[in-house]
Amino acid sequence: RPGLALCAGCGGRIQDPFLLRVSPDLEWHVACLKCAECGQPLDETCTCFLRDGKAYCKRDYSRLFGIKCAQCRAAFSSSDLVMRARDHVYHLECFRCAACGRQLLPGDQFCLRERDLLCRADHGPPPDGAAAR
């Protein structure tokens, strides 16, 4: 459809022999498809992520919109193992008692106060007598 498409990057008509289609309704001039954050060209050799009509490289998309560790605030990589407490997600090495620093392991009893994890020794028994997991 060269000549009929409008570039999502610059808004101009695409009359080039080639265009880049990232989703069914968004097309770019080859030179216009760049990361909205860092400006890195996004072509067939680079993974492209869309959010609100803007294109991002993988690194910036992860940094801006990815789930982050509740302790260190760093993004997760696809190979990271994680621990969860309610709606918080942690790197394994960040899943530690805020009072004593002991790493909490699967099966350990703990309490979550706002963002602070507390081991059973530093929190004591849960108020209702049930184990917090």
TrEMBL record:
CDD domains to which the protein is assigned, alphabetical: LIM1_Isl
Keywords, comma-separated and alphabetical: Developmental protein, LIM domain, Metal-binding, Zinc
Entry GO terms, CC: nucleus
Localization, UniProt: Nucleus
Residues spanning the signal sequence: none
One biological process term in Gene Ontology: positive regulation of transcription by RNA polymerase II
InterPro entries: ISL1/2-like, ISL1/2-like_LIM1, Znf_LIM
Domain LIM zinc-binding, first and last residues per copy: 5-67, 68-129
A single MF term (Gene Ontology): cis-regulatory region sequence-specific DNA binding
Pfam families registered for this protein in UniProt: LIM (PF00412)
Protein name: ISL2 protein
Species per Swiss-Prot/TrEMBL record: Origma solitaria
